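Here is one chain, start to finish.
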Amino acid sequence: MAGDPSMIESETRIRRYRAARERVLGRIADACARAGREPADVTLVAVSKTVPAAALRDAVTAGLSLLGENRVQEALAKAPEVPGARWHLVGPLQSNKARRALEVFEAIESVDSVDLARRLDRLAGETRPGRRYPVLLEVNVDEDPAKAGFAPTELGPALDQIGALPGLDVRGLMTIGRLVERADDARPTFHALREISDRLRAAGAPLGGELSMGMTDDFEVAVEEGATIVRVGRALFGERAHDDDHGGGPRSGAGPGDQPG
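Its structure:
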């Protein structure tokens, strides 16, 4: 008797995702070797925008258990159907969806204003009393008007306010690389984010050392420059319509719904 087509499809996806995961982890390990780093110091977030829940269940089986979503509503719909997954928000967060975001995501990587941080702090105090909620602050390193995030010069004063919020744990910074032809041309953005982090932390800012930077096209360069989190979609799940590995706002030259990854 022929096998169940849905089961065959699932097994095929699991094999494909497992192989893709190993390839990406191998590339991370090679980049770490070039930089004198340990691969264990880099966390892979599998950006799962537009990937259906059935496929994500297979991704979790294949070892891709930390998923990154760009939109709160999409994650809310998927999360109950994907047991064993953990979720990061890597896309922009509207303040009116902050409460729901806290319900589904274990961390938000795209806090881009003091006002949003204050709202998350208040809601975290209501929904998670006694526990600080992990966030990363998005930095518009290149001061690109098409991107969201704090300008580098705004970050210090913003941290003075956000770091004092009792409900948030500011674990580090996030940025989006430049839209470039060659991955190495994105290096200045990643190098600059690391320098910003080092400078602020040396000055005593209430900031952790996480650096979320790098996507499918440039994550190896980001790792060489100190990324501790990479957000990878296409290299794991394949090409998708209106693909977006990174969240947090478009790269220069891309519209909000058509962001490269």
